[in-house]
Design a protein that fits this description.
Order of helices and strands: EHEHEHEHEHEHHEHEEEHEH
CATH architecture of the largest domain: 3-Layer(aba) Sandwich
Number of strands: 11
Strand content: 15-25%
Number of helices: 10
Distance between the termini: 39 Å
CATH class of the largest domain: Alpha Beta
Strand order of the largest sheet: 7-6-5-10-8-11-9
CATH topology of the largest domain: Alpha/beta knot
Structural class: alpha/beta
Helix content: 25-40%
Shape: elongated
CATH superfamily of the largest domain: SPOUT methyltransferase, trefoil knot domain
Length: about 250
C-alpha cells in the first residue's frame, strides 16, 4: 500500500466537508487529496473535481488505509494532506471586523487542550468567523488541540491577542454584542437576544471569566440547569451557546 508521508508542519484531515472547505479556503496549503478507491459517490466526485481543477494531486488508496489510520473518525473515505493552519495575529481580527456579519468566540484563559480542541471543533461546526485567545496563560494550537478539534483547527482562524480586554473593547466598537457565559449570569441563554453580530466569551475551566473580562461584556448569560449539577464543562457550554445563536439567526453562509 502506498505510504502517505506527513511532515512536522502538516496535518491529515478527514471527511468530505473538511476536505472541501480546506480546498476552498486555502488550496495552496493542500499537498494531496486521498480517496478510498472503492468510494464513488457524487460528493466524492465533486471534491475530486475541485482538486483536479486546482491541480491538487489525488491519490486513491485501499480501504485499509482509512481503516488502519482513522477507524474512530467519520472519514467518509476522504482525507486531505495539508499544511497546518498557523495562528493568526491581531491584524487578522481587523479584517474580520470589516465583515457585514460577525460571529466570534473568545476563550478567556482556557488552559486544558482537550477543552480548547473541543471548543474549536464546535466553533468550526457552527461556522464561527474566528476563535480568539489571549497570548499568556492560555492553551493555543498544540498537537493535542489539533487532534481533539477533529480538523476544526485547520478550518477556522485561531487569533492570539496580547490584551484581551482591549480586544473586547475593539470588538464592541464595531457594534458587535459581547456576551459572557457565567453561572452567575443575569439572563438565561434562551431569554437573551442573540440576533445580529455576536461575540461569545467562555471562561477558563476552573475560574470562569476574569473579573475585567466580565466587566467589559455587554451582558452575562447563564444556562438553565434543572438538575443537581451547578456547572457544565466549558466545551459543553460553548456548544450549547453557539448553537443557540445558530437557532436564533438560522445562519447559513
Amino acid at each position: 500500500m502506498k505510504e502517505i508521508k506527513k511532515g512536522p508542519d502538516q496535518e491529515i484531515v478527514v471527511g468530505i466537508n473538511s476536505a472541501t472547505e480546506i480546498i476552498k479556503q486555502r488550496p495552496h496549503s493542500v499537498k494531496c487529496l486521498i480517496i478510498d478507491s472503492k468510494k464513488s459517490s457524487q460528493r466524492i466526485k465533486d471534491v475530486i473535481a475541485k482538486a483536479v481543477k486546482l491541480k491538487i494531486r489525488v491519490s486513491k488508496l485501499e480501504e485499509s488505509y482509512f481503516t488502519n489510520n482513522f477507524s474512530s473518525l467519520n472519514h467518509q473515505g476522504v482525507a486531505i494532506l495539508c499544511n497546518k493552519r498557523s495562528q493568526e495575529g491581531e491584524n487578522f481580527l481587523d479584517e474580520i471586523l470589516k465583515k457585514e456579519k460577525i460571529f466570534l468566540l473568545i476563550l478567556d484563559h482556557m488552559t486544558d487542550p482537550h477543552n480548547v480542541g473541543a471548543c474549536i471543533r464546535s466553533a468550526a461546526a457552527a461556522r464561527v468567523d474566528a476563535v480568539i485567545s489571549p497570548k499568556d496563560r492560555s492553551c493555543h494550537l498544540t498537537p493535542t488541540v489539533r487532534k481533539i478539534s477533529s480538523g476544526g483547527a485547520e478550518l477556522i482562524p485561531f487569533i492570539v491577542v496580547t490584551n484581551l480586554v482591549r480586544t473586547i473593547k475593539k470588538i464592541r466598537s464595531y457594534g458587535v454584542k459581547v456576551l459572557g457565559a457565567s453561572q452567575d449570569g443575569e439572563t438565561n441563554l434562551t431569554d437573551i437576544d442573540m440576533k445580529g453580530n455576536i461575540c461569545i466569551v467562555i471562561g477558563s475551566e476552573d475560574k470562569g471569566l476574569k473579573k475585567m473580562t466580565s466587566k467589559n461584556c455587554d451582558s452575562l448569560l447563564s444556562i438553565d440547569m434543572p438538575g443537581n449539577i451547578d456547572s457544565l464543562n466549558a466545551s459543553v457550554s460553548t456548544g450549547i451557546i453557539l448553537f443557540e445563536y445558530i437557532r436564533q439567526n438560522k445562519r447559513a453562509h
